[in-house]
Design a protein that fits this description.
Layout: E1 8-11, E2 32-35, E3 47-48, H1 55-68, H2 75-85, H3 89-102, H4 106-119, H5 124-143, H6 147-165, H7 172-184, H8 188-201, H9 207-226, H10 231-241, H11 245-258, H12 263-275, H13 279-293, H14 310-323, H15 327-340, H16 345-357, H17 361-374, H18 379-390
Parallel strand pairs: 1-3
Antiparallel strand pairs: 1-2
Helix pairs in contact: 1-2, 1-4, 3-4, 4-5, 5-6, 5-7, 6-7, 7-8, 8-9, 10-11, 10-12, 11-12, 12-13, 13-14, 14-15, 14-16, 15-16, 16-17, 16-18, 17-18
């Protein structure tokens, strides 16, 4: 990976340049960092001579320092200069980073957020934004099949979520988003604690706050009513991730002896069985998960969000039926899952596999290319498309 600091040149000026406007604290002994175009960047710290400067190049240089050179001795000076030139910089940069995220330009968004955090390490909102971005990067790495990078960004996300939750004064949104982060990782105890804290902290009466609070209360009640914070459940999930499916099945069966109507547990059992290629047993577990998921909420008040888990269950059943050679049934399950989650790349790729196996190469190629439009670096869709084109 190229060092971002290679794009900098530090220039000493004898007099204040016009681009610094009314900045009164100009110090000729402190070099200005200037960001070079990519074709001019060279490894190592560079000292430069006076040259035509643009405000944008100097601003970009200072932001690069704050993002990647956190020990720079002249940071206080650069911060003062930066805020004088662009007093509304935080808002401008946050908006720019969010646009970059929407455009899937995660690396540049990360650099912007890191610069903002370098300028103000205690910025709660920026810390939360970095946590959310780290989650996005973890998902992207997972879709590319890069387990090492996925694990790294998951750890980064948790680190920044914890920092955001420890902020003083507390930031309610940090706990709400952290709740979903832990929920997606099946760390139900941590999720329930984060959502419960959010409900305690949230005092807003606007529509967004009220909806979030209702969701947080419902998810917390669901976790508690199903005993998803049980240590056996978390242990089973960790064992599957480590490739110890047989041991995971033992833990899940023990859990199901106590709580036989928890669909999440049946789903996890099916997941372990499917990884062991026990297709029929796995399918039956997923069907039981689907059946229980569709039952009315229980008397304890716990309930799932509409659509939760449906796409994943349908995709898993489709994989089992696909392996059994039941292509039409597999397609039906995939289409049901696609209705629940129209941009689910795994489902779209599996529809391509079904089409390919049934001899419809044109349709298969269409599904693989659609998956790549949604996630251009998805390794599964890329591999399948190349295999199909070479066969």
């Amino acid at each position: 990976m190229k060092d971002p600091l290679d794009s900098l040149v530090f220039i000493r000026l004898n007099k204040k340049p016009d681009i610094l406007g009314s900045f009164q604290d100009f110090n000729p002994d402190i070099p200005l960092p200037v960001r070079l175009p990519p074709e001019e960047a060279k490894p190592g710290k560079q000292e430069g001579q006076s040259r035509t400067l643009s405000t944008e190049a100097v601003l970009a240089g200072i932001l690069t320092v704050f993002a990647w050179d956190t020990e720079n001795p002249d940071k206080d000076y650069y911060k003062k200069l930066l805020l004088k030139i662009r007093p509304d910089l935080r808002r401008e940069l946050t908006e720019a980073a969010l646009i970059k995220i929407r455009n899937k330009d995660f690396d540049l968004a990360e650099e912007i957020f890191l610069a903002l955090k370098g300028i103000n390490p205690g910025d709660r909102e920026t810390t939360l934004n970095i946590a959310l971005l780290s989650e996005e990067k973890a998902e992207k790495s997972a879709s590319e099949g890069n387990k090492e990078k996925e694990d790294f960004y998951i750890q980064e996300a948790e680190r920044y979520y914890r920092e955001a939750m420890e902020a003083d004064p507390p930031l309610p949104e940090a706990f709400f988003n952290a709740g979903y982060f832990f929920l997606n990782r099946h760390e139900y105890k941590k999720a329930a604690e984060a959502f419960q804290t959010y409900c305690t902290l949230e005092t807003g009466t606007d529509e967004t706050s009220l909806i979030r609070k209702e969701k947080a209360e419902a998810i917390t009640a669901g976790i508690r009513s199903k005993n998803l914070d049980d240590s056996l459940f978390k242990a089973a999930y960790d064992l599957i991730n480590k490739g110890e499916e047989e041991r995971a099945i033992e833990d899940i069966r023990l859990f199901l002896e106590r709580r036989p109507k928890v669909w999440n547990a049946w789903f996890m059992l099916g997941w372990a069985l499917r990884r062991l290629e026990r297709w029929e047993d796995a399918k039956n577990s997923f069907l039981r998960a689907l059946e229980l998921r569709e039952e009315p909420e229980d008397s304890s008040g716990g309930r799932d969000e509409p659509g939760e888990g449906l796409a994943d269950i349908c995709n898993e059943i489709a994989i089992c039926t696909l392996e059994a050679g039941l292509y039409e049934e597999s397609r039906r399950w995939l289409m049901t899952g696609l209705e629940a989650d129209p941009e689910n790349v795994k489902i779209i790729s599996n529809l391509g596999v079904v089409a390919w196996k049934t001899g419809n190469r044109q349709e298969a190629e269409g599904f693989f290319r659609t998956a790549l439009e949604i996630s251009p670096e998805d390794k599964t869709a890329l591999l399948l498309l190349r295999q199909m084109e070479s066969s």
